[in-house]
Amino acid sequence: MIHNFNAGPSILPKQVFEQASRAILNFNDTGLSILEIGHRTTTLFQPVLDEAIALTKELMQLDNDHEVLFLHGGATTQFFQVPMNLLNENETAAYLDCGTWGSKPIKEAKLFGNVNVVASSKDKNYTYIPRDFVIPPDSKYFHYTTNNTIEGTQMHFVPDTKVPLVADMSSDILSRVMNFNRFSLIYAGAQKNIGAAGVNLVVVNKNILGTVSRALPSMMDYRKHIENGSMLNTPPVFAIYVCMLTLRWLKEQGGVAAVEKINDQKAALLYDTLDSIPVFKPTVAKADRSKMNAVFVMENPELEKEFLDLCKKEGMVGVKGHRSVGGFRISLYNALPLSSVEVLAALMKHFALKHA
Ligand SMILES: *Cc1c(COP(=O)(O)O)cnc(C)c1O
Fold first, then answer.
1. Cβ within 8 Å of residue 245, ≥6 positions away
2. Is the pTM of this model over 0.85?
3. Considering only CA atoms, which residue is closest to atom 10 of ligand 1?
4. Protein residue closest via CA to atom 7 of ligand 1
5. Which of 171, 172, 200 to mutate to test the pocket of ligand 1 (most atoms within 8 A of CB)?
6. Which domains does the chain have, with CATH numbers?
7. What share of the chain is helix, strand, coil (3-state, %, to 5)?
8. Which residue in 34, 77, 253, 294 is deepest, having the highest Cβ count within 10 Å?
9. pLDDT level of residue 356 (50, 70, 90 thresholds)
10. How many CA atoms lie within 13 A of 194 on its CB side?
11. Beta strands of the chain (E only): which ranges?
C-alpha cells in the first residue's frame, strides 16, 4: 500500500487512473487511443473539452462573465501572461509576496509595468500571511497566491478591496468553497488538484480584457483563446481528458463542499497530531496553516533521517520537505484519502513514544 503525499504532480483518484488508462487503449469504444484522435473531430475530443468546461463552471458556480480556458505552459506561463494582458507600461499592479510562488510572478510582472509589493512575509521565511497591508485603489489589479505550496501557508480570507483580484490557486483550487466570481482572473496548474501536468486552468472575467495597448502574440492573448474555445492550436488532449475525469470524480463526491469537509478532517487530524507531539515542530503561524500542504521540522534535526526512513518503509512517498525549507511536507490534496493521514498519524505517535 502506497500513501502518496507528493506536492505535485500528485495523487489523483484511482478511478481516474483506471479510466484514463482504458482510454489510452480504446477511447469510448472507438477502437482508437485518446492519444491518436484528431482534436478537431467534433464527435471525439470536443465533447471532452465541453464537459471539462461545463464541470468547471458548475463546480466553481461561475457566472456568465467568467470564461474557462485550458492552456499550455503551466502556472509559470501565467506569471507573465497575466501582466502581458492586463498591465500597461505606465500602470501599477499590486502584488503580495508570501513565498517562492508569490515572488516569481512579481519578477515577471516587472517586465510589463510597475509593481507595488504591498506586503511580504520574507522577513520570517514566509511562515505567515501579512494582514495589515493596503492595496491602493488605483492599482490595475491585485495578485496573490491563495496557497503557498512550498512554505505551507494558506490565505484563509479574501482581501477586502475593489481592485480586481487575480489569484494563483494552483495548489488549493477546488479544495474549499469560495466565491470564485469575486476574482477577475484565476489560474492553476492542473497537476495538484485537477489532473495531469501539461495543462493550466484559467478562469477569466472577460470584462477585464482588452485594456492594454501592446500587441499580443495570439498564443498569449486570452481573448483569442476565448474566441477559439481553448483550441487556438492543438490543446494538450490527454491532460485535458484527465482533468475532465477528475472533475467528474469531484462531482460524484458531492462537489467542492463535500471534499472540503474531508479536507478539513485530514488537516485537523494531521495538525492535532503534530501539536500533541513535542518531537515535531510545525513551522507556520497557526492561523495561516495550509490545509493542502503541512510543513514541519523536528525539534531534534538528527531524528529527521530516522523518521524519513520509517515513512519510506511504510510506503509513504513525498514526505520530504522542499529543498528550500527542509524538514517535511505532507500534501493533502482532494484525492488523498483520510485513511492515509490516519496511517501517518499513527506512525508519528509510535515514533514519538520511542523518542519520548
Ligand atoms: C506548482 C505551483 C506553481 C508552478 O506550476 P507549473 O505548472 O510548474 O508552472 C505555481 N504556483 C503554485 C502556487 C504552485 O503550487
1. 15, 16, 19, 20, 195
2. yes
3. 75
4. 74
5. 171
6. 14-252 (3.40.640.10), 255-354 (3.90.1150.10)
7. 40, 15, 40
8. 294
9. confident
10. 30
11. 3-4, 66-71, 92-97, 114-120, 142-145, 147-148, 153-154, 165-168, 185-189, 200-205, 280-282, 293-298, 316-317, 328-331
Tell me, using a 6 A CB cutoff, whether residue 171 lines ligand 1: yes
Residue 208: all three cell numbers together: 477585464
Type of residue numbered 245: L
Q: Are residues 184 and 205 in contact, defined by beta-carbon separation less than 8 angstroms?
A: yes
> What type of residue sits at position 124?
K
Sheet holding 165-168, edge to edge: 66-71, 200-205, 185-189, 165-168, 142-145, 92-97, 114-120
Give which of 327, 290, 284 is closest to 148, Cα–Cα.
290
Does 41 score more than 90 pLDDT?
no
Going by their DSSP bridges, the two strands 114-120 and 92-97 should be labelled as parallel
